[in-house]
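re: ur msg from earlier - yeah i can do the phosphoenolpyruvate complex, just paste it... oh wait u already did. ok heres what im feeding in:
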Amino acid sequence: MLIVMQVRASEQQIEKVCGVVREMGLTPHPIPGSMRMAIGITGNKSRIDEGRIISMPGVVEVIHVTQDYKLTSREMKPEDTVVDVLGAKIGGEKIAVIAGTCAVESLDITMKVAEAIRSAGSIMLRGGAYKPRTSPYSFQGLGEEGLKILASAREKTGLPVVTEAVDTDTFDIVAEYADIVQIGARNMQNYSLLKKAGRARKPILLKRGISATIKEFLLAAEYIMSEGNYNVILCERGVRTFSDYSRYTLDISSIPELKMLTHLPVIVDPSHAAGRWGMVIPLARAAIAAGADGLIVEVHPEPEKALSDGAQSLKIKMFEQMMKEISLIARAIGREMA
Ligand code: PEP
Ligand code: MN
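and the outut:
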């Protein structure tokens, strides 16, 4: 349910409504809009008797949200959510690009990549310190040392950093260093991790599970938001299909669908979808053309020496080429690069 407040509703009126909602054993979620405040309500198992709320000062109307996911839905919040990370914005009109190595390998490599992607127009640095690898024998990441490398790259370049938390045990340390905490495809339905992310004060980049439907994806985001963290970015990164020519199949049609169903920013990871570098730029172009709010791309100065996902990592020159091409597409569809 959604309570729409009057344009000039006072702080006190809003707080009073929230208080009544709490008294009913429910959770209020104030959602500021450009014009007025709305208050989302979760926690109800059945239809709420709205009589008590509708008569309160400052309340315009009460709307029943029909979707299973509530806080993530556009019904609840028609305006696009813009996630602001140290001044770098994801969502809204501009297109944001996050780039970096798959795993953090060394300060030298991270710095090389960070400087290159920043000059090419990227607004955030990615790199995994804790890696969810398919094989237990593969490089598992540098752990806290990797987080420290990311922090010093941020200090030197001013780029906010995105890095993954793979479990609840290491979530807090990751959140301490990261500007955005990534929850990977394999963890999209790890509900204890999602709840933990919901209680964190850092924005969350949630990747779509490899076999997740759109509804499951949005309900995973709902887990985070229902705990009070409204800064969630969705990432389409390809789903498992019968096709065997790419690592996953990038679900381009999920982009307009998600943009219609949710106010959350939607970005695309063409690297993990492709699995090989030659396909990354075409998929990146398609994602922007289909309406994605940004990209997260793997870049490595020497992909052949990368400790993980070298085959799908772009060399710096290729990344610069990708940025040029997608900025042309952005302009063609009336958008611009962040
Ligand atoms: C990653 O971005 O480093 C990653 C492991 O991606 P995914 O969870 O989409 O496989
Ligand atoms: Mn990777």
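cool cool. The radius of gyration is 21 Å. ping me if u need the other ligands too
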